Amino acid sequence: MRGRGILSIIMFVFDIYFFQYNNFIATVFFGEKKMKRSISLRVFLLVFFFSFLIIVPLLNAQKIKIETEKGTPVVNNPKKPAPPPGVKSKLILEEELCIGDDAEEYLFAEESAYVSTAVDNEGNIYTVDPKLAEVRKFSPKGKLLKLFGKKGQGPEEMLFPGNIRVTAQNELMFTDRGNSRITFYSLNGEFLRYIPTYKYRLGRTKIDSNGKVVAVLYTYSEKKAIYEIKRFNNQLEPEFTIVSIDVTDERKGGRAYSPVLYWQITKEDNIIVGYPKKYEFYIFNPEGKVIRKITKEYDAVKVPDELEEKEWGRYSKEQREKMNIVKYHHGFFYFTVDEEGRIFARTWEQTKDKRGYFYDVFDAEGRYIAKIPIKAFVKLWIKGKLYTAEETEDGFPVIKRYNVKWEL
What we know:
Layout: H1 2-18, H2 21-29, H3 32-62, E1 65-69, E2 72-77, E3 90-99, E4 116-119, E5 125-129, E6 134-138, E7 144-148, E8 150-151, E9 157-158, E10 161-166, E11 171-176, E12 181-186, E13 191-196, E14 202-207, E15 213-220, E16 225-232, E17 238-246, E18 262-265, E19 271-274, E20 280-284, E21 290-296, H4 305-312, H5 317-321, E22 334-337, E23 343-350, E24 357-362, E25 368-374, E26 377-382, E27 385-391, E28 397-407
Helix pairs in contact: 1-2, 1-3, 2-3
């Protein structure tokens, strides 16, 4: 009788799942034969239920189509995440550190999105604020260790610095747009050298593990506008063009909400390029050859009417008709890459409280595995940590560090 009672309890649980409560009552009160038939039915349903749990993820994974175009793998992703079985796709962030949330006066003057951030192998944090034109070095615990550089045009001075990086050679590098150069310091704040960039209109700039300079160039005239990503040697002599995109049509009438060419370098020196006019990423090897293409379906997000009016309201109807006014945002705004090769593309879809955005996450193979909300401007993923630029409720810019954990 005790065994029958335990079995009845188990059957009751499954009856709830399969809406067979009445059949369960009949089995308990009307005999052994019905009990056996009921058990057989429930065994079938139990097998079906667990088979369903196993098959659904496999079906989701099959929604990701991998094809080949001219010898290059192309990963075509659906609108919704479809992580293959066993792939960790749940992101857990735990805040560890906040720099700038106290009353100290020396912190940031610029908006949080413009404060550039770098981290060395010891976990020290470096920031550069374009308005103050100086570099700050913080300990892993957020204590200010050193402040160096000043505003000016001399060799050890800077005007509108940004895009700070710790290179593979353990040097601190940042672009100095006001002085048209790339400047190098030691991690202790000693000025080392600079490379003039006045020949080129350089944008986002990085250096790979071999000291090669990779940068985006924007060239334009009255008739033509072109984005290019080039690789240079350490003397800023061009070696080859990685990608060139004609953006003349997108730039007509202004730049508001037009797609911007974005790119990142992985730890293997591969270069990931994304142009949001199409939700596509191209991965190039260090020699400039395409080795993978990633695409994703998406629903375009409309530019809010109040923002459209703010950008274009000063123009007459006749002037607007001649402009390329963007009504819908493109696939993503920008993207970052972590040390495992995951791509985090910030979309235009906002969180419910309007304080953050959703990020599409692709694994190292280019498969769309997660959609996560982050209420911050993502700066850097390194050694299991996420560094962000955010603003407090009072509007003060801060730099935060989170511990990163992935689960199934």
